Task: inverse folding
């Protein structure tokens, strides 16, 4: 019984939140890694692309809600998501046309493109704040829980509750679908293969007749879709606030770098590594240990390595450690 | 003879002129800055008290009072000190009503009020640190210290049989001070605080913070945060993970947005917020004439701060700060005839006649300790998704 209680506590406060967070980071990191692999620069505007896409989705969610359209037990935002993706893709393609293409034609150094993307970040930042404001928005509706803590306690008779929010379940399901679709696209379709070829060796790809503008456009569209999906899932599960999306940039980049920049599998693994480290290092293990250890050994203190204020420090430390000791990341991406 | 008469008349005139003076009161609030939405109403209430006294013509044999506003900015101590310095040395004010926020109030007290021997009555500075600040007997406040709210919260919890509590606070001076006050008071009453952890406002997700709180455990979670900020996020995460179902809610958490955001999921939770059922509030509302809003925070306290200064001048027979400062405590507290808003003329007459008064005012002023309001609190319960006032303390 004690073992079960310990497991349930662990699942409730560590495993389930970390899996959902990890999936959100993984989808975000996939976008960063694709841009790095194909366009060869770190896109700092990714966090704000997420915020922009989520904002569009929220606006359409409100419009649907005002017309009385709902998605049954699922959040209405999922209905608005495709519109969000399309408009964000158009916006991002516009940015590419107006800003990035100019620099690409000049064949500028990567570092310049990084700074250019920082400029784009600030513009997108401002646009998002102008349209929806700086405040927090909650736009989740529909059924809130798959299992609520109270129901779980009542059915199992355990002392500890286990809650699974429907947004966490949706996050995981969506992540699986998105990742499967992306890998199918990259490995099986002609366009996907040409993207990988372009990423592996640009000159060779150009010689074999691949249209670079097309590859770039498709990359931006996929990135916009990934960013919007990641942003909406994060916003549904937690809440939407432009500033927190900007801050998400750090764990997302950490995830992409840890996995190996340019490697899609690495981005997914990196997302989960970062999420689990953040949650586990800042979790207070007192309760779990209290169930597992005999009473005489049960800890009095919280057994918390770092307070939750240091959450971002965890991803930062991992990022630095990886850059120092294994700059290509876990899955042999490109060295930074 | 004629000359003598003229001389006597001149003397009489002269004497009268000396006695009836033009008293100046500085009102230093943050008219710009984070609480600029509150200070307009606060200053108007102080000026209403001054107008009331001027209309009576009874203060110090017909002296008139002029209010001079200055900007404390609420956050910039250097700017506030400069503004106060100008009030004292340039405008030659006799006393200061203010300042508003705790930080600038402390700065003005140490840099301007004490060196120049000027009385300050703040209607809104609530930091416990001001209770122990060196003040040479010149500093008073009609607002209670946050330490007082800690005692009230501890009383309410002990009376309801709460033995252990987890505590989280918003990571700033207000949150930290209040958390310490609650923890000290609760533990003095035999309760146990299992954990006291800060939360940052403006985060999207508080699951990790709640996980630590849940690991420590407790009968109840005390959330010393803000209603429109992290406080609600913490409660939502605690409810979602089933970590806590009961919450103790200090003043910063109480408002309509709380139940709008959480509905009846926090039924059974309780808390306290500054408030009084004293008739003074209604009397002040009646005489506001649309110039200020009595329900705006610290507006009644601002009226009381101005009134106390002028009544103390009358009691001391002098408008000099060092003369009237010792009178303020006597006037604010029992025994004596109770004085409510709108009765300042009556109070001035009574004081002149030598009758003891007990200034109750709009905020039911009762000064304790080194001259700060004892504070009146409204105990609230959340019942069926609504905030209900249970009693006044």
Result:
């Amino acid at each position: 019984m004690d073992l079960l209680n310990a497991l349930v506590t662990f699942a409730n406060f560590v495993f389930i939140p970390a899996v959902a967070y990890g999936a959100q980071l993984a989808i975000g990191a996939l976008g960063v890694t694709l841009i790095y692999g194909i366009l060869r620069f770190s896109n700092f505007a990714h966090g704000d692309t997420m915020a922009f896409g989520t904002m569009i989705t929220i606006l359409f969610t409100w419009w649907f809600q005002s017309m009385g359209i709902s998605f049954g037990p699922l959040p209405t935002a999922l209905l608005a998501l495709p519109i969000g993706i399309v408009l964000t893709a158009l916006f991002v393609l516009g940015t590419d046309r107006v800003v990035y293409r100019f620099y690409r034609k000049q064949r500028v150094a990567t570092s310049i493109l990084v700074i250019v993307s920082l400029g784009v970040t600030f513009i997108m930042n401002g646009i998002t704040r102008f349209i929806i404001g700086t405040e927090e928005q909650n736009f989740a509706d529909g059924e809130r829980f798959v299992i609520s803590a109270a129901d779980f306690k009542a059915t199992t008779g355990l002392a500890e509750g286990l809650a699974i929010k429907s947004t966490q379940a949706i996050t995981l399901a969506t992540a699986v679908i998105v990742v499967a679709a992306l890998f199918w696209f990259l490995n099986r379709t002609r366009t996907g293969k040409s993207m990988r070829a372009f990423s592996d060796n640009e000159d060779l790809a150009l010689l074999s007749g691949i249209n670079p503008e097309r590859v770039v456009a498709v990359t931006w569209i996929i990135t916009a879709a990934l960013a919007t999906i990641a942003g909406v899932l994060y916003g549904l599960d937690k809440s939407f606030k432009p500033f927190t999306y900007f801050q998400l940039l750090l764990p997302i980049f950490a995830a992409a770098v840890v996995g190996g920049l340019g490697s899609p599998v690495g981005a997914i693994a990196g997302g989960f590594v970062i999420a689990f480290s953040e949650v586990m290092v800042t979790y207070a293990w007192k309760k779990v240990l209290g169930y597992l250890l005999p009473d005489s050994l049960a800890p009095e203190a919280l057994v918390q390595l770092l307070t939750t204020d240091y959450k971002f420090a965890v991803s930062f430390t991992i990022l630095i450690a990886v850059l120092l000791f294994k700059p290509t990341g876990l899955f042999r991406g490109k060295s930074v | 003879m004629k000359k003598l008469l003229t001389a006597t008349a001149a003397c009489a005139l002269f004497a009268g002129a000396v006695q009836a003076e033009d008293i100046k009161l500085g009102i230093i609030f943050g008219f710009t800055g984070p609480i600029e939405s509150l200070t307009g109403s606060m200053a108007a209430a102080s000026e209403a008290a001054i107008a009331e006294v001027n209309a009576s013509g009874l203060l110090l044999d017909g002296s008139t009072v002029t209010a001079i506003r200055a900007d404390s900015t609420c956050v910039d101590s250097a700017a506030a000190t400069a503004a106060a310095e100008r009030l004292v040395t340039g405008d030659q004010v006799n006393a200061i009503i203010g300042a508003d926020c705790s930080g600038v109030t402390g700065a003005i007290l140490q840099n301007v009020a004490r060196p120049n021997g000027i009385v300050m009555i703040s209607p809104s500075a609530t930091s416990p640190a001001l209770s122990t600040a060196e003040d040479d007997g010149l500093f008073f406040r009609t607002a209670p210290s946050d330490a007082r709210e800690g005692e009230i919260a501890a009383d309410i919890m002990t009376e309801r049989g709460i033995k252990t509590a987890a505590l989280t606070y918003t990571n700033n001076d207000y949150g930290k001070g209040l958390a310490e006050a609650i923890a000290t008071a609760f533990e003095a009453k035999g309760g146990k605080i299992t954990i006291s952890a800060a939360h940052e406002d403006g985060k999207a997700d508080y699951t990790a913070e709640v996980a630590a709180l849940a690991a420590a455990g407790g009968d109840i979670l005390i959330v010393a945060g803000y209603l429109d900020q992290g406080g609600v996020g913490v409660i939502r995460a605690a409810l979602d993970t089933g970590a806590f179902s009961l919450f103790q809610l200090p003043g910063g958490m109480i408002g309509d947005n709380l139940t709008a955001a959480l509905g009846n999921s926090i039924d059974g939770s309780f808390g306290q917020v500054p408030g009084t059922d004293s008739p003074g509030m209604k009397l002040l509302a009646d005489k506001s004439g649309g110039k200020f809003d009595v329900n705006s925070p610290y507006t009644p306290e601002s009226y009381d701060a101005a009134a106390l200064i002028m009544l103390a001048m009358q009691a001391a027979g002098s408008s000099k700060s060092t003369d009237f400062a010792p009178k303020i405590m006597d006037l604010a507290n029992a025994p004596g005839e109770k004085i409510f808003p709108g009765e300042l003329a009556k109070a001035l007459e009574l004081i002149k006649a030598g009758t003891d008064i007990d200034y109750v005012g709009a905020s039911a002023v009762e000064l304790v300790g080194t001259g700060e309001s004892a504070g009146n609190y409204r105990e609230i319960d959340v019942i069926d998704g609504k905030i209900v006032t249970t009693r006044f303390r």
Summary: Residues 14 and 280 of chain A are 7 Å apart (CA to CA).
